[in-house]
Design a protein that fits this description.
The chain has nine helices and six strands, in the order βαααααβαβαβαββα. By secondary structure, the protein is of the alpha/beta class. Strands 3-2-1-4-5-6 form a six-stranded parallel sheet. Helix 8 links the parallel strand 4 and strand 5. The longest helix has 19 residues. It starts with 7 loop residues before the first strand and ends in a 5-residue tail after the last helix. It binds 1,6-di-O-phosphono-beta-D-glucopyranose and magnesium ion. Magnesium ion (MG) binds next to loops. 1,6-di-O-phosphono-beta-D-glucopyranose (B16) binds next to helix 3.
Length: 221
């Protein structure tokens, strides 16, 4: 049976196009430290692809007391202020290897491409790396109610590109993102951390290793 053709690629942003892991880690670590909550790089690994408030819930698993909703909102805002301070220093030099080349190749091949990110800071990040107008569509944490592993952000990105989910390939570095792609009826490529996810249809160490031509032409050969 023929597989549906891939007509659009939806890129996760953090960890696929740009590496913000360290900025998230430093910001959560600063906020948690001020509250006397232990927070390590291993804890940070669990926050990949997870929304800000869901990330805070994970950070608070190690807290010694319960926090009110108002306190939680204030902590999330404080962490975000620290994070914004750090990402404001990023430039297009911080693009991950192969990212720009992948976008150029897809453009050349006439394949649409979009961003599907949980981050509410997507507009600022795209501005920092000078890619605000590069994508056919952007769906991010500001436009959705349910974050990954819910497929909402990817379904919105597909809709904005005018494509059916089955014609889209999601590129993700988070387990939650690979699961979201599968839940939305899309194919997925796991990069970096998510390249080990059993549900990923394709795998690559980074975008520099991703063979888009082979994937997109898989039915033509
Ligand atoms: P913000 P992605 C995700 O972005 C990050 O991986 C995750 O660590 C972060 O908590 C989430 O965005 C929300 O980010 O606080 O900026 O709204 O990987 O989906 O592009
Ligand atoms: Mg990510």
């Amino acid at each position: 049976m023929n597989k549906p053709p891939i007509l659009g690629v939806i890129f996760d942003l953090d960890g696929v196009i740009i590496s913000t892991d360290e900025c998230h880690y430093l910001a959560w670590n600063r906020m948690a430290g001020e509250e006397g909550i232990p927070f390590t790089r291993a804890d940070n690994e669990r926050l990949r692809g997870v929304s800000r408030m869901d990330s805070l819930a994970i950070v608070l698993e190690r807290a010694s007391r319960a926090y009110t909703t108002a306190e939680k909102d204030a902590m999330a805002s404080r962490k975000n202020a620290y994070y914004v301070e750090l990402i404001n220093r990023l430039t297009k030099e911080d693009l991950l290897p192969g990212a720009l080349q992948a976008l150029h190749l897809l453009k050349e091949m006439g394949i649409k491409f979009a961003i599907g990110s949980s981050s509410k800071n997507t507009p600022l990040l795209l501005k920092r790396i000078e890619l605000s107008h590069a994508f056919d569509a952007v769906a991010d944490g500001n436009h959705i109610t349910h974050s990954k592993p819910n497929p909402e952000v990817f379904l919105l990105a597909a809709k904005k590109m005018g494509l059916s989910p089955e014609n889209c390939l999601v590129v993700e570095d988070a387990d939650a993102g690979i699961e979201a792609a599968a839940a939305g009826g899309m194919m997925s490529m796991g990069v970096g951390y998510a390249s080990a996810h059993p549900s990923a249809d394709f795998r690559a160490k980074s975008l520099a290793d991703a063979n888009f031509k082979a994937i997109l032409w898989r039915d033509a050969s």
